[in-house]
Amino acid sequence: MKLVFSNENHFIVNNVKNLIEAQSIQVFIKNEFAQGALGETAAFDCWPEVWVFDDADFEQAEAIANESQSEKSGADWVCKNCNETNASSFDICWRCQCDKATNVNDQ
Questions:
Q1: Whole-angstrom Cα distance, residue 17 to residue 65?
Q2: pTM greater than 0.70 (yes/no)
Q3: Is residue 66 within 8 Å of residue 21, measured between CB atoms?
Q4: Helix or strand (DSSP H, E) at 2
Q5: DSSP codes, 65-104
Q6: What pairs with residue 41 in β-bridges?
């Protein structure tokens, strides 16, 4: 077993766990309920952690965790249907609901 990811935020840790499990990699969360020990132990020791069962899955699981936490920035895109400029984080045009993947103008 190897530690893949840790964060103070339970929601982020559970999201990473779910993303890894979606790739058929078995993981578990350690320290899920350790917040009650805060003060008796160091804060970092109470953070929830995602661990992989099989060491052979570690590199793939770590790559998934790292990708989920990386900031993705890209260029804004223009919808071919309505000519509305959309932020790169939008996959669907906010104005006409056309799909970015099939309906993009290059700027």
A1: 8
A2: no
A3: no
A4: strand 2-6
A5: HHHHHS------EEETTT--EE-TT-SB-TTT--BTTTSE
A6: 38
Burial 33-56 (b: 16+ CB within 10 A, else e): eeeeeeeeeeeeebbbbbbbeeee
Question: What is the band of 72 on the pLDDT scale with cuts at 50, 70, 90?
Answer: low
User: What value does the mean pLDDT take over residues 5-9?
Assistant: 92
Q: Which residue has the tokens 């929601």?
A: 11
Q: Which amino acid is at 4?
A: V
- Measure the CA–CA gap between 71 and 50, rounded to whole angstroms: 20
- Tokens, residue 54: 């099989």
Taking alpha carbons only, the member of 107, 105, 106, 78 closest to residue 90 is 78
Extract the tokens encoding 104. Answer: 């993009």
